[in-house]
Design brief:
single chain, alpha+beta, Adenine-n6-DNA-methyltransferase TaqI, Chain A, domain 2, 2 domains, 4-stranded antiparallel beta sheet, 10 helices, 35% helix, globular
C-alpha cells in the first residue's frame, strides 16, 4: 500500500472563543488524552482561547524528541476550549479518511518514533507544523478503514467495561472496609482484642533500590525474560490495583551485585510521592526503586486486603510532607501512622469477604492487559 502525505488530508482549525460561549477548559496529556485543565485562569482573557469540537484534533509539537512521544488526540465531546498554544486540525473529507482511523495511526509507537526523528533538528527538539504535515500514512479504502476502526473499538469498549467493573468492585471493597473498621468504630472504646497501634509495629517497611544505569546492562525492556525480574517504578503503579506488567526488568545479576531487596508476591506497595498517591499489590516476586515502600504480608496473608484498603483510605497530605515541592512522604512518617489492629479472627472474616472481589479485579486487569496487547498488534498491522 502506498503511503500518503498527512498534510493532504488535514487542515488547520483556528476558531477563537470570541463570544465566551464555551467555558469548559481542557488540556492534553503526553498519553494522547484530553483532561480537564487545572490551570488558574482567573483574570485570563478566555476570548483568545481556541475552540475544539467533536472529531477535531489538538496536538503539542514542543519537545517531541525529548519526550519520545507527540501528544495528539481526537476530541470526542461536543466542544471545549484550549490554550492558543495548541495547534488544532481536522480531517478535510471524512468520506476519504476517518478521524478515528487517523487517531489510531497517531497511537502507534512507530508514529511517535518517526515524529521524534524529525524533531531532532528542531528548536529544543520540537516538531514544525510543516514536518508534521509531511509525515505519511497509508489510506486504504474507506470500507477497510471502517473495518479496522470497528475491530479496534470492540477492544476499546471491552477494556472500558472492565475498567468500569473494576471501579465498582473497588468501591464495594472500600465500603466493606469502612463498615468494619471506620464507621462507628470508637478508638477510645474498642471491643475486646482490638487495639490501636502504629504501622511500624505491624510491618517491617523497606524500600527498593536502583542500580546505576551507567554501569552495565542491568535494565531490560520488553516481555518476561529468563534471568530477569520485574522492576516497578512509580509509572508502573498507575495501571490499577495490581502490578500486571512493568516497563523494565532487572537482571538477577544486578539483584545480587547491588543487593536489591526482593519484594515477595502478595505484598503491598506505596509510592512515596503524594502527587502520584498510588497503592498497588504485587502478584509475583518483584523489585522496586527507592521511591516505593514495601508492606510485606507473608506472615499473615489475611492482612493483604486490609493493608491495601487502609493505605487507600489514608489522606497522606494530612500526615505532613517532607518537601513542599514534591510533597513526598518517608518511611518514618509511615511507621508513625496510627493503624487499627483487629484480632486475627476478624481479619480472617474480612479476608473471606473481600478476597473474591480482589480476585475478580485481578482477572479483569489481566484481561485488559491482553486486550491492550491485541490493540498494539492491530496498530502494528496498519503499517503493513
Amino acid at each position: 500500500m502506498e503511503y500518503q502525505r498527512l498534510g493532504d488530508y488535514i487542515r488547520e482549525v483556528n476558531v477563537r472563543n470570541r463570544e465566551l460561549t464555551v467555558t469548559k477548559l481542557v488540556g492534553l496529556t503526553i498519553d494522547k488524552a484530553f483532561i480537564p485543565s487545572v490551570a488558574n485562569v482567573i483574570g485570563t482573557d478566555l476570548s483568545n482561547y481556541k475552540v475544539i469540537r467533536r472529531e477535531q484534533f489538538a496536538c503539542s509539537l514542543m519537545q517531541v524528541s525529548r519526550d519520545g512521544k507527540i501528544p495528539v488526540a481526537m476530541f470526542e465531546e461536543d466542544e471545549a476550549i484550549m490554550s492558543p498554544a495548541y495547534p488544532m486540525f481536522e480531517v478535510v473529507d471524512k468520506t476519504v479518511l476517518l478521524p478515528q482511523y487517523l487517531m489510531m495511526w497517531f497511537s502507534r509507537s512507530e508514529f511517535d518514533r518517526e515524529a521524534s526523528y524529525y524533531a531532532v533538528g528542531g528548536v529544543r527538539g520540537s516538531l514544525t507544523w510543516e514536518d508534521f504535515c509531511n509525515m505519511k500514512l497509508p489510506v486504504p479504502d474507506i470500507s477497510r478503514q471502517r473495518e479496522i476502526v470497528a475491530e479496534y473499538e470492540t477492544l476499546t469498549n471491552r477494556i472500558r467495561l472492565n475498567e468500569q467493573m473494576i471501579e465498582k468492585l473497588e468501591a464495594t471493597a472500600q465500603a466493606f472496609y469502612r463498615k468494619m473498621f471506620v464507621d462507628g468504630v470508637d478508638k477510645e472504646n474498642l471491643p475486646e482484642g482490638w487495639r490501636v497501634g502504629t504501622v511500624g509495629e505491624m510491618f517491617n517497611i523497606t524500600i527498593g533500590r536502583t542500580p546505576p544505569r551507567a554501569e552495565g546492562q542491568w535494565f531490560v525492556s520488553g516481555p518476561n525474560m529468563n534471568d530477569t525480574m520485574p522492576w516497578v517504578s512509580i509509572a508502573d503503579m498507575n495501571n490499577g490495583m495490581f502490578i500486571t506488567s512493568t516497563r523494565e526488568r532487572l537482571t538477577k545479576g544486578s539483584v545480587r551485585i547491588f543487593r536489591i531487596p526482593i519484594v515477595p508476591a502478595n505484598s503491598v506497595l506505596l509510592s512515596f510521592k503524594m502527587t502520584v498517591g498510588r497503592v498497588t499489590i504485587t502478584k509475583e516476586d518483584t523489585l522496586t526503586n527507592e521511591a516505593i515502600a514495601h508492606f510485606v504480608c507473608q506472615d499473615n496473608p489475611d492482612m493483604l486486603e486490609y493493608t491495601y484498603l487502609f493505605l487507600k483510605h489514608v489522606d497522606f497530605k494530612k500526615q505532613g510532607s517532607t518537601s513542599s515541592i514534591t510533597e513526598a512522604i518517608n518511611t518514618n512518617m509511615i511507621k508513625q501512622m496510627e493503624m487499627l489492629q483487629p484480632p486475627v479472627s476478624v481479619l480472617k472474616q474480612f479476608h473471606n469477604q473481600i478476597d473474591p472481589i480482589f480476585k475478580t479485579i485481578y482477572l479483569n486487569q489481566q484481561e485488559n492487559l491482553k486486550l491492550t496487547e491485541l490493540q498494539s498488534l492491530l496498530l502494528a498491522r496498519m503499517g503493513k
